[in-house]
Design a protein that fits this description.
The complex is a heterodimer.
Chain A: H1 3-10, E1 22-26, E2 29-33, H2 37-47, E3 58-61, H3 71-87, E4 90-91, H4 100-106, E5 115-118, E6 132-135, H5 138-147, E7 149-153, E8 157-163, H6 172-183, E9 192-196, H7 198-201, H8 205-213, E10 222-225, H9 229-235, E11 256-261, E12 268-270, E13 278-280, E14 291-295, H10 296-299, H11 302-312, E15 322-326, H12 330-338, H13 341-348, E16 351-352, E17 373-376, E18 392-395, H14 398-407
Parallel strand pairs in A: 2-3, 2-5, 3-4, 5-6, 8-9, 8-11, 9-10, 14-15, 14-17, 15-16, 17-18
Antiparallel strand pairs in A: 1-7, 12-13
Helix pairs in contact in A: 2-5, 6-8, 11-13, 11-14
Chain B: E1 2-10, H1 16-19, H2 30-34, H3 45-48, E2 54-57, H4 69-76, E3 81-84, H5 89-98, E4 102-104, H6 106-111, E5 117-121, E6 126-129, E7 134-137, H7 143-151, H8 154-161
Parallel strand pairs in B: 1-2, 2-3, 3-4
Antiparallel strand pairs in B: 1-5, 5-6, 6-7
Classes of the chains: A alpha/beta, B alpha/beta.
């Protein structure tokens, strides 16, 4: 069995599972946020069950439109907060809050071998830790909150092997953008993606989170990594829970095996309006920009801020654009502060925000006007994603976004060396 | 159960931001969401849609975010079902769970033109293009999913199975 099949079999009380099997799967963690929780709560209440199955396994994070951007968002956040308190759920208030997919691993809640479901499509991020994690809708989450189980069809697994090592300015973001560009936004539809190879072995935990996070952008149900010394080092000190590590069998069956030479994957740009619309930065041509956003569940971790700071140190962002940097959690913010990164950003003329999903989905903290272009380390560049329907989003890694902020156009950091 | 209505055609990779933009996710009332359905890619959608109409779309309809607001907005706009070449995974679950029928049938999508009158028999998965006279059969649902659909959604299905539910 593949890693995916092993985890799903163990969570459905079966010896073996195969792609296409329908299962009722036991969940270790059930997640929702200020946008998806209100519907989940309404549907939970329609079920007529007074208590959730296990409050310690249900997490709610007010990250999308919080700190509240308007009265309606405040009303939704209040509904979630009151439900979370009434039920005694795991809840992170503004001040402690970070982007859900940044803080769940950080606080040791997401662990290897778990099944994690969340009413947020980027729940697949936890696959970086060797968990089977997948996004669903609010009604699925309502039922999971009540019963601790969800229905699932066992996906086939596609194995992605990355040979060699990526170059100086390429990272997890570039490997995954290149992959999506190759297979398309439905290239892994209904499938689990498992990432392996030399480039993956040498990839940092933050880089792995970035890759797993964007599995959904290829239509994937999940994106998983093997647990290795990098994973164990990351988990050390974060949890006392004994987690179970699963390994794919040597004779596991994959629906496809796709191989890349990572040393040839240059930093990538996804042009509007699909994440699969990728080009190497070196071939992007002259694209002036109005805003640069560095942050999100994709690239809002400490390594991402370090990369941006390496480029912005001692430089100024172009006065014709806004550069907005959003650390993904209070811990990332604090670490960035201690390392002097935040000072570098402010001296460079960037705005630094409290953690929020905010601009990624055109919510707040950097909404675009008609005709504006934004380079962003986020995950989607759909029509109108960050604001006006006539605005444009270009996806890139943090070093490229920072270099572009300085030069006022899409640019690679090597152009300033 | 059968539905008859006009076809509203869309291309491939229609994402959930296009179906209902994130700026409206500060609400969750179905009627309020329906008022902004498809707004960014088809501003006249709401004024054209009559109850029973169908959406006909190319591959990967509903890709992107997990917002259940997307099928909820489509259903509340009066659309009776979506016929597509394929559906994004989370959107598919959400539609089944909330009672918006989806029919997967590439041949029907290729045949149906904007404005054609289409009749859909959900029980048999039969799609008839009344404008051209052609008939198609959609991919059948697995039995377990049919149970969710015939119960009226996942909450109703779960209530039947849960001993503690009222």
């Amino acid at each position: 069995m593949t890693l995916t099949e092993k985890i799903l079999a163990a969570h459905s009380g079966r010896e073996r599972v195969s792609p296409g099997d329908f299962l009722s799967v036991r969940c270790d963690l059930v997640l929702s946020n200020d946008i998806t929780a209100p519907i989940a709560i309404r549907e939970f209440e329609r079920l007529g069950i007074p208590r959730v199955f296990d409050p310690a396994k249900i997490v709610m994070v007010p990250d999308h439109f919080c700190p509240n951007k308007d009265i309606q968002s405040a009303t939704q956040a209040k509904m979630m907060r009151e439900f979370a308190r009434r039920q005694g759920l795991v809840y992170f208030e503004v001040g402690e809050m970070g982007i859900e997919h940044v803080i769940l691993p950080e606080k040791g809640l997401a662990l290897p071998g778990q099944v994690i479901v969340g009413a947020d499509s980027h729940t697949c991020t936890y696959g970086a830790l060797g968990a089977f994690a997948t996004g669903m809708g609010s009604t699925d989450i309502a039922v999971a909150m009540a019963t601790g189980e969800v229905w699932m069809r066992v996906p086939d697994t596609i194995k992605f092997v990355y040979h060699g090592r990526p170059g100086k300015w390429s990272g997890g973001k570039d490997l995954i953008l290149h992959t999506i560009g190759d297979i398309g936004v439905d290239g892994a539809l209904y499938s689990a993606m498992e990432f392996q190879g030399e480039a993956i072995d040498s990839l940092s935990m933050d880089g792995r989170f970035t890759m797993a996070n964007m599995a959904i952008e290829a239509g994937g149900k999940a994106g998983l990594f093997r647990v290795d010394s990098t994973t164990r080092r990351y988990l050390k000190g974060r949890t006392n829970v004994k987690y179970r590590v699963y390994e794919a069998d040597a004779d596991a069956e994959y629906s496809r095996v796709i191989e890349y030479d990572a040393s040839r994957i240059e930093p990538q740009i996804a042009f509007p309006h699909l994440p699969s619309n990728t080009q190497p930065v070196s071939k992007a041509g002259h694209v002036p920009i109005d805003q640069a956003v560095i942050g999100s569940c994709t690239n809002g971790r400490l390594e991402d801020l370090r990369l941006a700071a390496r480029v912005l140190k001692g430089r100024k962002v172009d006065p014709h654009l806004r550069c907005i940097i959003l650390p993904g959690s209070q811990q990332v913010y604090l670490d960035g502060l201690k390392e002097g990164l935040i000072e570098i950003f402010i001296k460079a003329g960037a705005a630094v925000s409290t953690p929020t999903c905010g601009p990624c989905l055109g919510g707040h903290m950097g909404v675009l006007a008609a005709g504006e272009r934004c380079i962003s380390t986020t995950n989607r560049n759909f029509i109108g994603r960050m604001g006006h329907v006539k605005s444009e989003v270009y996806l890139a890694n943090p070093a490229v976004a920072a270099a572009s902020a300085v030069l006022g156009r899409i640019a690679g950091p090597w152009e300033m060396e | 159960m059968s539905h008859k209505g006009k076809a509203h055609k869309y291309g491939g990779n229609i994402d959930t931001d296009a179906i209902i933009a994130a700026r409206y996710l500060n609400m969750h009332d179905p009627a309020e969401l329906a008022a902004h359905c498809m707004e960014d890619i088809d501003p006249d959608f709401l004024s054209r849609v009559k109850p029973g109409d169908v959406i006909v779309a190319e591959a990967n309809f509903g890709c992107g975010s997990s917002r259940e607001h997307a099928p909820v907005a489509i259903k509340a706009s009066g659309i009776s079902c979506v016929i597509g070449k394929s559906f994004a995974r989370i959107f598919f679950r959400n539609a089944i769970n909330t009672g918006l029928p989806l029919l997967e049938c590439a041949e029907a999508v290729d045949s149906i033109k904007q404005g054609d009158i289409v009749e859909v028999d959900l029980a048999t998965g039969t799609i008839t293009n009344l404008s051209s006279g052609q008939t198609f059969r959609s991919k059948p649902y697995p039995g377990f999913m049919m149970e969710i659909i015939s119960s009226g959604g996942l909450v109703e299905y779960t209530r039947k199975k849960l001993p503690g539910a009222k």
